[in-house]
Amino acid sequence: MDHVEFDRDPPANLRTLVMAFGGWIDAGQAATGTLRYLVRDLSAARLARIDPEQFLVFTQERPDVKLRPDGERDIQWPPSEFFAWQPEDGRDGILLFSGGEPHQRWRTYTKAFLDVAERCGVRRIVSLGALLAGAPHTRPVRVTGRCSDPDWRSLLEAWGIYRRPSYEGPTGISTVVLDAAERRGMSHLGLMGQAPHYLQNGAENPAAIQALLTYVARLLNLSPNMSHFAKAVQDFRTQCDREVARNRATREHVQQLEQQYDAAAGEEQQTLPDGELDSEKLMQDLQDFLRGQREGREEG
Questions:
Q1: Cβ neighbours, 10 Å, residue 260
Q2: 5, 47, 49, 139: most buried, per Cβ within 10 A?
Q3: How confident is the chain (300 residues) per 10-residue block, as mean pLDDT?
Q4: DSSP one-letter string for 187-247
């Protein structure tokens, strides 16, 4: 199979694929963080990798050098990896994928990606994502869902998180993959979390990871160990509180977001129904926020 290296012969009963791409739709590392947690919790073994050579620009996403115990060094290339989990009771298993968004040759990448899924027997895909939004860190993380399957839609509607797609504009690799998957007869569902836009996007957000993990676990009837999240989320919010308290403009901005969140009573305000960016609204919020920060520093 072009551009793919298998660690072993793939099973053919991995009916569900859960995928998460880093980059544009991975705010707070929520999507890839959720995927990594699932891989660890399920003890899923790596099954295959997509060779990054044709799809990444290494001056944009560089490989890492790691020292071995013997003092020699190994080069670790940016991973795009599939993992397989098969339950002991013989039920259908799960294929999991985590990787960075490719820089180029998206159609070739998508074909290689879906060829792996098809070879493993995938019939439905769950896509995880998270976007920056006007969401306060002091409130529960909102998650929205969209899907192509009527049964899944009924479930999302019952949970109160279904949003009809209406976004038009720039998109990411997950949308391209799901569009091609539908043409291959695979149904799909997307879960999109929200991360506060005033926090550093590179820092891991355990609250967003917990929210996405909760929904995907309910969807797939999994029972991951969630015991450590309470402390991780509390520590995260305490750290955010400390950072926010340092600047008056930031404090006032968060208070405004809290008021909007509470008034909305669960209705999405800062993202479009399908979870994609409302670019004009978000840019206005960011400009207002940054302007307030500058004014706060001048007054301080």
A1: 14
A2: 47
A3: 93 96 91 96 96 94 92 93 91 95 96 97 96 89 91 90 86 95 95 87 86 94 92 92 87 87 61 39 45 48
A4: EEEEEEEEEETTS-TTS--HHHHHHHHHHHHHHHT-----TTHHHHHHHHHHHHHHHHTT-
Burial environment of residue 135 by CB neighbours within 10 A (0 to 12, 13 to 18, 19 or more): buried
Q: Which of 140, 285, 115 is nearest to 210 (CA)?
A: 140
Tokens of 241: 């509180």
Q: How far is CA 55 from the centre of its chain?
A: 20
Vertex 201: Cα angle to 179 and 261 (nearest 5): 85
Closest CA to 87 of 155, 37, 15: 15
What span, in angstroms and rounded, lies between the C-alpha atoms of 184 and 57? 29
All structural domains of the chain? 4-299 (3.40.50.10900)
**Angle at 39 (CA atoms; ends 85, 36), nearest 5 degrees:** 155
**60, HSE (Cβ side, Cα atoms, 13 Å):** 11
